[in-house]
Amino acid sequence: MTTLSSRPSLKTVLIASGVVLTLAMGVRHGLGFWMQPISLAHGWTRETYSLALAMQNLMWGVFGPFAGMAADRYGTMRIVIFGAFSYMAGLLWMALVTQPTLFIIGSGVFIGLALACTAFGAISGIVGRSAPPEQRSWAFGISSAAGSFGQFLMMPVEQQLIAAVGWQSAFYVLAALVVLAMVPMAFYLREPPVTHGAGPQQSVASAFGEAVGNRSFWLLLTGYFVCGFQLVFIGVHLPAYLKDQGLINPNIAVTALALIGLFNIIGSYYAGKLGGKIAKRHLLSAIYVIRAAIIALFLLAPVSAWSVYLFAAGMGLLWLSTVPLTNGIIAGIFGVKHLSMLAGLVFFSHQVGSFLGAWLGGYLYEQQGSYHVVWMITIGLGLLAALINLPIDERAVKRGAVAA
């Protein structure tokens, strides 16, 4: 077994990680606002900038398991500090680089690495280790709500920054804000050294092998792929889609994305709370079915500011509500020792979906002149994910003495 002393309190962990998640997720969710000004400034198509955001999401997934592994082994504090400076570098890169290939690769690596170190994957381990089992799902819900609050808070901030100081200077301001706020919070996420008692311990390789050999782990991977596809397609392309539909007032898109963040605070919190009472797989399945229904109704309804706001509120309730449930299932099946790494592995699938959602939206728009096909794919994938989550077995794995 593992014994720890002087571990930060759950309240301290939730507050400090909440600030980090607020900035990490808030800044990231607003990057779609730069699509049109950067594309106009550099003479790019929407596909170029879409590919850059897609690369960021893919690299977030690629680096996620390694960032989680490092957080489990070396502590969350070091990883968050490293991620803060990587975030700063990525935002400065996006402000200064004009060559499209370098822009795509550099921003993908820097921002992707930053998010892997400062978002849910790396943070989940310390949250799971700080919370008692009966409060774990609730604690994950609080963390997800913090990321949602970041989206609500940062959407208007980023849009107003672009309007007030220009898109390039807005990147400079955000780069400074990320470092100045995240680094102090990281010191509250310092974990004491781990001392191992007598008996065999589960290694990283053993934990990895156990997970990839588990059927429910693969079902989670597949469902999370759909989640990433849906969220990033909507987050990146909704402002441009609304303009295509004649809603040229940029405040409508800003309000919609902010409403997603606002209602997601409620959805994430109650998803985590309900996850302690109702089978998490059933909640996940319901989330995907309702998402598909809300998207279909949005496309069928007459386009207006109010239809957009209702769509945003409905999607917001379901936006990050999958995160506490998915992390809760992982912790329940495999335990918390390697939770950050395993959450990072599952999140890699989420980010492959995110990559395709961001890139495919831009690609098919350039090919067909509309987002219609991508919306249809989004609905179909939601129904598929609802079916995939139902057979998940949430019971803890049975291990031999060596793995115990």
Give your account of this protein's structure.
The protein has 404 residues and is mainly alpha-helical. The chain is 79% helix and 1% strand. The chain has a two-stranded antiparallel ribbon. The protein is globular, with a radius of gyration of 20 Å.
Name the features.
404 residues; mainly alpha; two-stranded antiparallel ribbon; 16 helices; globular
Strand elements, count: 2
Task: Give Rg in angstroms.
Answer: 20 Å
Largest sheet: 2 strands, antiparallel
Name the structural class: mainly alpha
| Poorly predicted segments | 195-200
Task: Determine the strand fraction and express it as a percent band.
Answer: under 5%
Biggest sheet: strands side by side, in what order? 1-2
Estimate percent helicity.
Answer: over 70%
Distance between the termini: 8 Å
What is the typical, i.e. mean, pLDDT? 86
How is this structure best summarized?
The protein is mainly alpha-helical and 404 residues long. The chain has helices at residues 10-29, 35-42, 46-74, 76-96, 100-118, 120-130, 133-165, 167-186, 204-212, 215-244, 250-274, 280-300, 305-318, 322-334, 339-368, 372-389; strands spanning 2-3, 195-196.
Layout: helices, strands, pairs:
Layout: E1 2-3, H1 10-29, H2 35-42, H3 46-74, H4 76-96, H5 100-118, H6 120-130, H7 133-165, H8 167-186, E2 195-196, H9 204-212, H10 215-244, H11 250-274, H12 280-300, H13 305-318, H14 322-334, H15 339-368, H16 372-389
Antiparallel strand pairs: 1-2
Helix pairs in contact: 1-6, 1-7, 1-8, 2-3, 3-4, 3-5, 3-6, 3-15, 4-5, 4-8, 5-6, 6-7, 6-15, 7-8, 7-11, 7-14, 10-11, 10-15, 10-16, 11-13, 12-13, 12-14, 12-16
